[in-house]
Amino acid sequence: MSRRYRFFRKNRLANASVPAAVSAKAPVSRPPRTHVEPLTADLNRIHVTVSRSFLKKLAAARDALSHSHPGATDEEILAAGLDLLLERAAKRRGLVEKPRKTPPPAAPGSDAVPAHVSRAVWTRDEGKCQWKLDSGGICGSTYQVQLDHIIPRALGGPSTVDNLRCACRVHNVRAAREVYGDELMDHFTRRGSRPRA
Ligand SMILES: [Zn+2]
Asked: Does residue 165 share a domain with residue 119?
């Protein structure tokens, strides 16, 4: 069976999905997608342009996993790395598999959202941006999603399940602009993240 992943050295493949002019000045949004070529119902080939240092890293990872994953394919090496990333992200969101039965009390004066609250919100919202669209429905983005206080913390909004929602970065900033105004928010955000009217 041919390998599912093929890596093309720089300059060997004109990266049709990422024109240089676009990638250089891309707005803050989803990065350009990798080109995926369906082969069968279950198999796909992805075309990724990678640097020399990436290939070195891949070789080093293969060596590092040579005991636990002997003879692993490139896909298996990369999948093992992705599993680690997802596990780390899940921990940050409080989505650990075995939560404590009695959640620890929040530290006095702490701004941190308690892990059990974070977990409940992420689970309820399925990690999707809950911003309501004018056209109906919700944004639903899963990219750069953060927890957003519906009544802002600065206005006394508590870090409770009811007062929190998942929101993508764009809508998180937009919500803050509606509360604090553009002038103040321009001090805290880069130009370009200001939503168009
Ligand atoms: Zn959104």
From this structure: yes
